[in-house]
Amino acid sequence: MTTVLGLRCRECSRLFPDEALHVCDFCFGPLEVNYDYDAIAALTTRASIAQGPRSIWRYANLLPVADENPVSLGAGFTPLVRAERLGAELGLKDLWIKDDTANPTGSFKDRVVSVALTKARQLGFKVAACASTGNLANSVAAHAARAGMSSMVLIPSNLEQAKILMTTVYGGEVIAVDGTYDDVNRLCAELTSERPSWAFVNVNVRSYYAEGSKTLAFEIAEQLGWQAPDHVVVPIASGSQLTKIAKGFKELSLVGLLDGEPSVRISGAQAKGCSPVATAFEKNIDAIAPVKPDTIAKSLAIGNPADGYYALDAIRTSGGSCGSVSDDEIIEGIKLLARTEGIFAETAGGVTIATLASLAQRGIIKPDERTVAIVSGHGLKTVEALAGHTAPTHIIAPTLDAFDKAVGFSDPNFQ
Ligand SMILES: Cc1ncc(COP(=O)(O)O)c(C=O)c1O
Ligand SMILES: [Zn+2]
């Protein structure tokens, strides 16, 4: 049973039907899914959720599509890891990592794509399309293959090798565009009117797609015993994920699933080479000035973020902050997380961890706050970023003598 009432304009609140619409034709504001929260509350208990699948679909009542057989590779219900060693290094006593590297194609995008393609299939679309900075491309191609849909994926041509390979292997069409993500996105906006029978997951079905990110908030709360954390650190590209994590905690409270009133501070993380939201936050202004990205965090390289304004608003109203970090700090962040917690993140994860470190150091995240950092993509996707930054400790001949000469006996860690 669907709990969706329709779509609603985020700006003027006008109502629209439950269809593939994404912009208000009165004020051009973005449309958002509008739910019947009384119906959700009546249908949903902690126990009913616990009986659901170990995937995002355990929260189906809070998602914009009801389907007995969703398009799924098993996204979601990823580990929430207590990060004691990383916390000790950063002076944070109650730190957790939401490890979304564990998703089927290695990033949180599997959450949004599973929702988008389930909805697209219900609406009668046969083609799944997207503009992507890489992870969305991987996920759309894979989920389209699972659903038996055709896929048409557009990416900037300078993406990391693994991201291109992980898209092409699924057999869909992959169009590499000589330009930035913002160029690709503009082209896709034009294509959306030219090819109305294609579901561009982050354009004409964006209102549904975006809802998938709420499941990060749902899972974090459930994994903490139905309590909201005090602080969440979220990487920002378009700003959609951050906005929807904020919405997710509010919805859980609205339908009575949380212990107490949530008061979650949400902080954003960007790369210095593409930090339009962090810049607006630091300058204390509302206008987000587009930038031309130049950073190793290619997955976050959106110079003109569609949901930047809403992300900024969610950060400010929650009492959070927004920081940006250099490419060197991103690499240090990747290595720090790997060394302390055994989790290998892509550059976006490096952005999150480095920003977490900086916010902790500046006293913006308090040592006692229960803090969750979203690590949203797997490190094997961006190995180029580490070139020259990792190497074997020694290279030796295959003899005991060579081993002893290289390693010796004095290191106390190896006694
Ligand atoms: C790994 C990773 N993390 C975070 C993001 C940011 O997502 P959003 O565009 O919803 O801000 C992206 C976007 O592509 C991503 O690939
Ligand atoms: Zn409107």
UniProtKB/TrEMBL annotation:
InterPro entries: Ser/Thr_Dehydratase, Thr_synthase-like, Thr_Synthase_bac/arc, TrpB-like_PALP, TrpB-like_PALP_sf. It catalyses: O-phospho-L-homoserine + H2O = L-threonine + phosphate. GO terms for molecular function: L-serine ammonia-lyase activity; threonine deaminase activity; threonine synthase activity. The keyword Lyase applies. The keyword Membrane does not apply. Residues 71-377 form the Tryptophan synthase beta chain-like PALP domain. It holds the Pfam family PALP. Gene3D superfamilies: 3.40.50.1100. Keywords: Lyase, Pyridoxal phosphate. Its cofactor is pyridoxal 5'-phosphate. One of its GO terms (biological process) is isoleucine biosynthetic process. Belongs to the threonine synthase family. This is Threonine synthase. It comes from freshwater metagenome. The lineage of its organism: unclassified sequences, metagenomes, ecological metagenomes.
